[in-house]
Amino acid sequence: xxxxxxxxxxxxxxxxxxxxxxxxxxxxxxxxxxxxxxxxxxxxxxxxxxxxxxxxxxxxxxxxxxxxxxxxxxxxxxxxxxxxxxxxxxxxxxxxxxxxxxxxxxxxxxxxxxxxxxxxxxxxxxxxxxxxxxxxxxxxxxxxxxxxxxxxxxxxxxxxxxxxxxxxxxxxxxxxxxxxxxxxxxxxxxxxxxxxxxxxxxxxxxxxxxxxxxxxxxxxxxxxxxxxxxxxxxxxxxxx
Length: 240
Ligand code: BTN
Fold this sequence. Notes:
- Helix 2 (70-83) packs antiparallel against helix 5 (156-177).
- This protein has helices at residues 12-18, 70-83, 133-136, 146-150, 156-177, 183-187; strands at 2-9, 27-34, 53-59, 90-92, 96-99, 102-114, 117-127, 196-200, 208-215, 221-224, 230-233, 237-239.
- Strands 1-2-3-7-6-5-4 form a seven-stranded mixed beta sheet, sandwiched between helices. A five-stranded antiparallel beta sheet has the order 11-10-9-8-12, with no helix packed on it.
- The chain is α+β, with helices and mostly antiparallel strands.
- It contains six helices and twelve strands.
- Bound molecules: biotin.
- Biotin (BTN) is lined by residues 11-13, 34, 37-40, 43, 45, 54-56, 106-108, 124-126.
């Protein structure tokens, strides 16, 4: 995979979207630091410190049938990479990776459109590899970093190499087969089925209460409403 590296950039996702046409398919944009790291729902992504991962994959596949599954696939890839450190990360639907209930990684997938046509996606990921506890504590929800979990610094290059190798391994299979390509790998890392959960569509709006039933063949979440009706949740934030 071709990699374009920057020292400091506003956001690897923003850069990839703005330069999409001139970037080749299946390349990665990496930055040492971001000044305006972005998360889902217009949240900010803490991007200080050069020892964390800020990466965006630029993907322009011909077969666009399973683009929606790429975020969940990347989530499995990150979980597998973290498992090499003898930890047991959990996946929180749709695409957060947690350790002991604390978020260590975030994924932001953005479609690149032109004249109402999808050109491809920018699949961005931030992984907290080496962070001071005091910086983690400024984040307004439970978060952690790999160094804090294993008690020593993490080699960023090694983690990055592993992550990219793991991503390359299953990518074509995902384009071809969607959620089926990694269904087992995803399901064995989730632990909220059967439990009461809340779904929030964006920050500040009312959250809805459900019981999580299953993940369907497309990777969507099936829940039971309070009046016992099945409902398919396509996106949102799951709150345990
Ligand atoms: C989230 O959990 O809300 C998603 C966070 C995504 C952060 C990554 S860091 C690299 C890429 N560039 C950005 O500005 N955001 C993503």
